[in-house]
Amino acid sequence: MSGDKQEAGALALPERCGVSAAQEIAEAGRGLEPGGRLDIDAGQVSRMSCATAVALVSAARSATASGGALVIRAPTAAFTDAFADLGLFEALMNMEFAE
What gap in Å lies between CA 25 and CA 2, rounded to an integer? Predict the structure, then answer.
């Protein structure tokens, strides 16, 4: 992939995102190569903890800082609402989205 962001993988979030989901996101973010990309499938989320939202914000910021990206796919209303409820909606809107 000359010049393109390298695909690091995809992570499908569970219906209920708690501490274990946050840990998985943090590990995936730490394992992201500079310029890499991590796709997060949020299409099944019905509940999301503060820890998960913060882990996503942190991973997205780290990915962006290293020239990569964290891309959110198919976010549910519950996923988006969690960020709004936690005062993190602006951080969510700074993330990349894909269909």
Answer: 27
- Can you give the residue range of the structural domain that contains 91? 16-98
The string of pLDDT tens digits covering residues 39-56 is 999 999 999 999 999 999
Residue 97 Cα distances to 52, 61, 74, 75, 93, angstroms: 17, 14, 8, 9, 9
58 lies in a domain? yes
**Taking all residues of the chain, what is their mean pLDDT, rounded to a whole number?**
91
In this model, does residue 1 exceed pLDDT 70? Answer: no
pLDDT, average across residues 9-33: 94
Domains contained in the chain, number? 1
Q: What is the Cα 12 distance to its own chain's centre?
A: 10
